[in-house]
């Protein structure tokens, strides 16, 4: 029997997110659900896995939280449990931007459905900005989109403020269309731009994943693949399995060409991170990988040291 994996987020006003933590954790554990859920004053975000019944029970509880009755959930399937434990964590922000007080639940930009996205970004009066991190953009992007080349989402506000005049000019402001993997980062980005005084801000509803799922390949303006924060690594049109692998040392995607690099060693390093790690660190990763392979051969799960989690707080 395959397991149900549910990815969810909702910007909502939680006056006391700490008060919500224990009941949410209890319903997850009571139903054998594992994964990570984040609670903040601005809402909920995370990915969980379990039986169909268990996930349904947890989502029923989530929908009782303030302004979460209509929360959107993306479902997928997994042959084995992808998470070791269940965590419900409290955070200042669902995705860390560090731009002061924002209210995406009230002040986000205008949603654009995937079937209307091509017309918007093809309009010469629209500038298109990719709100994802640099290593994600390398895997694929929309044709003509601006790549901020930011290593972290928290770098986006400074990038925009530094280039505001260059992007928007002195006359009539262009429309700004922004996108991300699943919707959460571009939703927060539009709230930030609205706070900065940008008048016409739009974002892709459901993110790239919904676009790739909805828009036929022969009509698509997407080029390449889309990096995802799970075991698939990257997906293409119709959410088909992509061609990228994952470096388990730095959590960056590795292309077929990257796998051929002499700096790539499975479970240990890739060309992007080789210079960022010491030989002692690589030796530790090498031993961990050896233990993982041994556990796999013996048909058991391996729970070892936690490696750097580049995906933390960035899903979407």
From TrEMBL:
SUPFAM superfamilies: Multiheme cytochromes, Rhodanese/Cell cycle control phosphatase. This is tRNA uridine(34) hydroxylase. It catalyses: uridine(34) in tRNA + AH2 + O2 = 5-hydroxyuridine(34) in tRNA + A + H2O. Its EC number is 1.14.-.-. Keywords: Oxidoreductase, Transferase, tRNA processing. Residues 281-301 have a biased composition (Basic and acidic residues). Residues 281-316 are annotated as: Disordered. GO terms for biological process: tRNA modification.
């Amino acid at each position: 029997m395959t397991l149900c994996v549910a990815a969810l987020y909702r910007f909502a006003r939680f006056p006391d997110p700490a008060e919500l933590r224990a009941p949410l954790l209890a319903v997850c554990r009571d139903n054998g659900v594992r994964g990570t859920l984040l609670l903040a004053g601005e809402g909920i975000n995370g990915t969980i896995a379990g039986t169909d019944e268990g996930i349904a029970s947890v989502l029923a509880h989530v929908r009782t939280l303030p302004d979460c009755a209509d929360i959107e959930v993306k479902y997928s399937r997994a042959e084995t449990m992808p998470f070791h434990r269940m965590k419900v964590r409290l955070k200042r922000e669902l995705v860390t931007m560090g731009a002061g007080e924002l209210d995406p639940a009230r002040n986000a930009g205008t949603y654009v459905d995937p079937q209307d996205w091509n017309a918007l970004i093809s309009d010469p009066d629209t500038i298109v900005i990719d709100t994802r991190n640099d290593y994600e953009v390398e895997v694929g992007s929309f044709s003509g989109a601006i790549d901020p080349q930011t290593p972290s989402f928290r770098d986006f506000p400074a990038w925009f403020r530094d280039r505001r005049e260059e992007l928007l000019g002195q006359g009539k402001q262009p429309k700004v269309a922004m996108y991300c993997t699943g919707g959460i980062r571009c939703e927060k980005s539009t709230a930030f731009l609205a706070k900065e005084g940008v008048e016409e801000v739009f974002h892709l509803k459901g993110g790239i994943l919904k676009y790739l799922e909805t828009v036929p390949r022969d009509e698509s303006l997407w080029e390449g693949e889309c990096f995802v924060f799970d075991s698939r690594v990257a997906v293409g049109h119709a959410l088909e399995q992509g061609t990228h692998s994952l470096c388990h040392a730095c959590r960056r995607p590795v292309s077929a060409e990257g796998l051929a690099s002499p700096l790539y060693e499975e479970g240990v390093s890739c060309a992007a991170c080789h210079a960022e790690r010491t030989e002692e660190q690589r030796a530790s990763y090498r031993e961990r990988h050896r233990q993982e392979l041994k556990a796999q051969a013996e048909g058991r799960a391996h729970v070892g040291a936690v490696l750097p989690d580049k995906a933390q707080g960035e899903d979407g």
